[in-house]
Write a structure and sequence with these properties.
about 400 residues, alpha+beta, Ribosomal Protein S5, domain 2, Alpha-Beta Plaits, 4-stranded antiparallel β-sheet, 11 helices, 13 strands, globular, binds adenosine-5'-triphosphate, binds (R)-mevalonate
């Protein structure tokens, strides 16, 4: 529930990161993917102030800005370019590329961007872009405020820090606008209708950071739980009922990489070898669909306490196949291959997650897995410089914390 201190609105929202179990990259081309939220979150606190300024603190990227409030109100009132022949204002009709360019120009009028890193500039651009869109027709509702953004997620490593960031900003600004218009101060949760709107705005933010993303990352960060996505299916995504309890270890290769460059790398490979790459993508689709059926079965059998060891073995087989297919698309990395090999030496199976090229891999622990072998595997990964951590899959999506 939002709180009011004096006459000032204060809200806090948070959104989880995500882990793609199957189908990264192929999902960009309309194939099936399976992902889950993880128990690491980004949070955003917004608190109105009386100082006539908007202050922005993004701790993960060392960004601290204090902007003149009237400059921002002026900026938000400026035109938003729409696609041809449309006069209605709606997020679906915005000419995204022109609006991104214009927003960048407008930002440089109110902030000295020459001192900012590219990363700070991109995150600020997303924030101002979303603020502009959300308050464009309601600029009189804006009041000076401070925002502070924190995150438990590693940036640029495959666990959806960018989507989690875009979801938080969209959710906080949309919720703030609602409070300024309808004073729903007793609202404690977002509705499914809110989820849909937050997702649309978050996707627009992700487009700035990622070019042409599939929308899987923001969808999972909004909805939480386990999500199966197939963009060309009748329904874009399904939240999986009876999600399985999976013991999963995240392994950080420590190799930095850039999601949009890796997506472009696959696009270039596909351009040069359309038929071969299509066959790889189709195989990935098959693997994801089979994995999705298996995960639903594992979830159900866990509940009824029947044996699921065999299903687990099949799941591991699919992990190995998916990693092989990603390797053939050129998005693995020497360190990711090394991680898979170290896990395999102890009877575990691993694959990269997210865009690849570095970042995280994961391995799942089969039921009753030998503790000694696990310890040996973790020691070996550590001695090669790979950091391991346990994550819980499938928690809450975006929510109002206070
Ligand atoms: N907490 C945050 N505060 C501000 N900006 C953030 C935050 N988290 C992410 N970002 C923005 O998102 C960018 C990271 O996006 P990128 O796609 O490279 O990584 P990722 O989302 O962690 O990986 P993947 O898309 O493979 O899951 C950062 O460079 C930054 O611009
Ligand atoms: C590589 C990719 O499939 C996942 C990035 O987390 C890109 C996307 O879905 O937009």
């Amino acid at each position: 529930m939002a709180c009011i201190e004096g006459n000032s609105i204060k809200i806090k929202v948070s959104a989880p990161g995500k882990l793609i179990l199957f189908g990264e990259h192929s999902v960009v081309y309309g194939r099936t993917a399976l992902a889950a939220s993880i128990n690491r979150r980004t949070s955003l606190e917004l608190c109105e102030n009386v100082e006539n300024r908007i202050t922005i603190t993004m701790n993960k990227i060392d960004l601290n800005l204090s902007l003149n409030f009237s400059d921002i109100v002026q900026l938000v009132k400026e035109n938003v370019p729409l696609m041809e022949n449309n006069s209605d204002f709606s997020i679906k009709l915005i000419d995204h590329d022109s609006f991104t360019r214009l927003t960048l120009e407008r930002i440089s009028r109110v902030v000295d961007v020459s001192n900012l890193t590219d990363q700070q500039k991109s995150s600020l651009l997303v924030f101002v872009f979303l603020l502009h869109l959300i308050f464009h027709n309601n600029s009189d509702l804006l009041q000076p405020f401070n925002i502070v953004i924190n995150s438990d997620l590693s940036l640029g490593a495959g666990t959806g820090s960018s989507a989690s960031y875009c979801v938080c900003v969209s959710a906080a600004l949309l919720h703030y606008r609602t409070l300024r218009t309808s004073c729903e101060f007793d609202k404690t949760n977002f509705t499914h209708e809110d989820y849909k709107i937050i997702n649309e705005y978050a996707y627009a933010g992700e487009r700035i950071l990622h070019g042409k993303p599939s929308g899987l990352d923001n969808t999972i960060c909004v909805n939480g739980s386990f999500v199966e996505m197939n963009r060309i299916g009748p329904k874009e995504f399904n939240v999986i009922e009876n999600p399985p309890l999976i013991n999963l270890i995240l392994i950080n290769s420590g190799v930095p990489r850039n999601t949009s460059q890796l997506v472009q790398k696959v696009a270039a490979l596909k351009n040069r070898n359309p038929s071969a790459v299509d066959n790889i993508l189709n195989a990935m689709d098959d693997v994801s669909k089979t994995a999705s059926d298996l995960l639903k079965k594992i979830g159900a059998s866990q509940k009824s306490c029947t044996s699921f060891e065999e299903d687990f073995q099949r799941l591991e087989e699919l992990i190995v196949m998916n990693q092989g297919l990603l390797y053939s698309l050129g998005v693995s990395h020497r360190c990711l291959d090394d991680i898979c090999m170290i896990c395999n030496q102890q009877g575990l199976n691993a694959k990269l997650t997210g865009a690849g090229g570095g970042g995280f891999a994961f391995t799942v622990l089969p039921p009753n897995f030998d503790q000694g072998k696990l310890n040996t595997c973790l020691e070996s990964l550590k001695s090669h410089g790979y950091h391991c951590s346990h994550v819980v899959l499938g928690g809450d999506g975006v929510c109002i914390d206070s």
